[in-house]
Write a structure and sequence with these properties.
Largest sheet: 5 strands, mixed
Structural class: alpha+beta
Strand order of the largest sheet: 4-3-2-1-5
Number of strands: 5
Radius of gyration: 13 Å
Strand content: 35-45%
Order of helices and strands: EEEEHEH
Length: about 80
């Protein structure tokens, strides 16, 4: 089963998350099938906080992938900011 989830990168106390589509049987930070964006909760000033490839995510969901709860919340947040 394919899951779309956040994978943590970055240093201690400076998290940075990549949004990836990955096989659920892989390790948490295992090989990703496709990178679909990023989330930077520590963004300041003009830095981009959230960047998602919504079309790519929708394509994976159409193939049967499951989106994590936190990523689902972030997608709704991005949709509100775009509108």
């Amino acid at each position: 089963m394919v899951k779309i989830k956040l994978v943590r990168h970055g240093a201690k106390r400076a998290p940075f998350y990549k949004v990836v589509a990955t096989d659920s049987r892989n390790a948490g930070d295992g090989k990703a099938l496709q990178r679909l964006g990023f989330y930077n909760p520590m963004a300041r000033g003009q830095e981009v906080k959230l960047n998602l490839d919504v079309e790519g995510i929708e394509a994976w969901v159409a193939k049967g992938a499951q989106v994590s709860d936190r990523l689902n919340t972030l997608m709704k947040q991005q949709a509100q900011q775009s509108a």
